[in-house]
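Saturday, quiet lab. Running sequence design on the structure tokens for the scaffold JK sent over.
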């Protein structure tokens, strides 16, 4: 059986470096035998989490769409920008809504985290912060994470990674994730 991944770049910007990186990760995962469904983060638009609103009106449509897409996936490719040394508030808000659903749609999933940034750090500080709520909700977050510093110069015109070593590192880290995720999902042959 094939591993099915939901791929999301947690950025609303059309020209996001993280969207470009996610496209490369999705292509690499597909080459390695996974099926990858790419979702636009804007599909999961939802208001700020408010328990009173949830009690009065239930879950917003964006949260329900995210839950449904997660339900069809074995794992996640999640590319996230780093905002102020942490994860984007929009992503944290989505995680907060999902955490209220029963069963929690993230529990038992696996995730491979990626980040691209225009700076020299590559978004790693945000990924460390993102691990906390995901692991707290029962996600197996792969120990290796992929970061791409100086992302504005990292992509060729065709969207591929300009540096062969950067592309090779992405392939290698994804191979490790896919092996673990396949076992976790009970799909190893």
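Result came back. Writing it out in full:
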């Amino acid at each position: 059986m094939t591993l099915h991944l939901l791929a999301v770049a947690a950025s609303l910007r059309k020209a996001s470096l993280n969207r470009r990186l996610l496209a490369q990760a999705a292509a690499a995962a597909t080459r390695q035998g996974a099926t990858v469904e790419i979702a636009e983060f804007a599909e999961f638009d939802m208001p700020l989490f408010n328990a009173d609103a949830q009690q009065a009106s239930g879950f917003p449509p964006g949260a329900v769409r995210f839950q449904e897409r997660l339900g069809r996936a074995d794992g996640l490719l999640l590319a996230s920008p780093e905002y102020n040394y942490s994860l984007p508030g929009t992503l944290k808000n989505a995680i907060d809504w999902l955490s209220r659903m029963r069963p929690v749609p993230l529990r038992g999933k696996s995730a491979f985290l990626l980040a691209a940034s225009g700076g020299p750090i590559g978004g790693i500080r945000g990924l460390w912060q993102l691990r906390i709520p995901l692991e707290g909700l029962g996600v197996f977050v792969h120990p290796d994470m992929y970061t791409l510093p100086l992302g504005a110069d990292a992509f060729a015109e065709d969207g591929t990674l300009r540096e062969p070593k950067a592309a090779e590192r992405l392939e290698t880290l994804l191979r490790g994730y896919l092996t673990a995720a396949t076992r976790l999902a009970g799909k190893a042959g």
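Notes for JK: The mean pLDDT is 96. The longest helix spans residues 164-184. Ask whether to fix the surface positions before the next round.
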